[in-house]
Amino acid sequence: MLKVNDLVKYYGKNRGIEGLSFTLSEGEILGIIGTNGSGKTTTFRLLLRLLLPDKGKITLNDHDLEDIDNKTFGYLPEERSVYRDLKVIEQISFLAKLKQLDDNLIKERLDYWLNKLEIEEYRNRKLKELSKGNQQKVQLICALIHDPLIVILDEPLTGLDIINVRLFKKIINELKDAGKMIMISSHQYEYIEEFCEKIILLKKGKANYYGSVNEIKQLLDLRYITLVTYFKKDYLLCDGVINQENSGNMIRLELENETKAKKIFKQLLKDKELVSLKYEFPTLGDVIDKGFIS
Fold it and tell me: Are the C-beta atoms of 224 and 286 separated by less than 8 Å?
């Protein structure tokens, strides 16, 4: 188990992170949410030992972090950080050697991941010739080729097309099933909800929330109804509807509580003009957008 206890890091008088504590177990995915300057990058750098904390302690299975092999962590950064003039195999091999992998093991794992991520045909191409999505695949291989126990993924799905999003999702779930400890940072809250049972919400270097995704969603009494119809209607006059968002043929209604939402939902079930109808609890994005965690 990874344990972070009362972590503090200041840059002069500016707070990077303060009082951060959490745990992460094998086979668990922890979501890290926060705007720019919230402390996400500082947290990752402290875990990767790129920075030293001013206070606090990080342990893995009761061993201090400074005693842990650097191959324990794999890191996929948000920004592209590849050597554009290197070939794909040169980039991956270079970083693998920094993790002290021998040539035979590098070749074996390189072949495996290039096929797994469907970029075998680009192995001898320069990185600057690859699309952004394929560069992201190379970075993921660099993060995983040494088989780390703890995997940090910073905005892993940004900029990917729908096919590659599915591929990355599959790999993340396979890592979870293999017992890896995973941290995911993303501004796309729907992915955090999909992967994570627990989240940390950072704001200005402090954790405003740490706990269950389901519990944070229960902070909001609002309910939502999403319907698809070819006949536009104004539902704001209905009792309990406080907002209506239209997007093409889809309408999303925001209702002030569960009782009124269920009443309207029953009425809508009788509407034969509807193509589809869905009753929804608040999403993680709804809770955060409403400012319930400030």
Answer: yes
